[in-house]
Amino acid sequence: MTTTEKFRNACEEAVKVFEKLNINSQEEIKSKLEYCIGSYDYDKNPVGLYESGQAALKELKKFKSKNPRKVNKKIIENLEKNLVN
User: Fold this and answer.
1) Which residue range(s) make up the domain with 8?
2) Which residues fall within 8 angstroms of residue 73, CB to CB, at 6 or more apart?
3) Most buried of the four, 6, 39, 72, 78, by CB within 10 Å?
4) pTM of the prediction?
C-alpha cells in the first residue's frame, strides 16, 4: 500500500470522526474530504486529497485541544505520519 493510499484511508477515518462529532462548523471540511476521497479513487491524483486532509488535520487538532477525549489520538497521528511522507 502506498503512502498516498494510507493517507486516503486516514482521511476516510477522519470523515467518520467528523460524522460522529456532528459539528456544523466542520461540515464543509467533511464534505470536501468526502469529495476528494472519491476524486482520488477515480483519477488517483492526490493533490486535492492532501489539501483537504491538511484542513481536516488542523480542525481535528483544534477540536481535540478543547475536547481531548472526543478525538482518537491515532487518527491524528495517521494523518500526520502519512501527510509528511
Assistant:
1) 3-84
2) 64
3) 78
4) 0.89
